[in-house]
Amino acid sequence: MAAAENAAPEMVDPAIFEQLQANIDDDARVREELRNILQKLQRQVQEALSSAWPSIVEQGSSIKELESVASKHPYYKYNGTWTKDIQDTARLAVNSVTLGDYQTPLQISKFVKDIHAGFQILNLKNDSLRRRSDSIKYNVKKIEDVVYDLSLRDLVPRTGS
User: Fold this and answer.
1) What is the pTM (predicted TM-score) of this model?
2) For a designed S-S bond to 101, which of 82, 96, 109, 158 qualifies (C-beta 3.0 to 4.6 A apart)?
3) Gap between the Cα atoms of 119 and 133, Å rounded
């Protein structure tokens, strides 16, 4: 009976520690599962990059080649090679609005207007370069219409009011 009297009552329920250990074990299991998935993804990304790397290097050398040839000649003389790209930017402005991106048309507008302003400085006669410059002017008009519609609908912030 003396031993029973000297025994201290338990102050903490051991079940609390059992639940805590179960939570720690669950966390460790989830952490390990996530680590395995991330390692699998990392291997997949490395495989994709290693197979794409030769193409990326080849594109870089093509860009350097383009720069070395194009930098020796007046840019406006060969604008027919990139006029289609300007037309694509006009379509990009419309498509970006369709997708809910209202800032891209503003950037495109500034870019195309800058290009058009460069051509306006030139004294162009009625030749193929003038016709190509006019096509840029019509694309500026298309993009300005998109930006105008956005501003009417208050989808872009107003400046300088």
Assistant:
1) 0.48
2) 96
3) 7
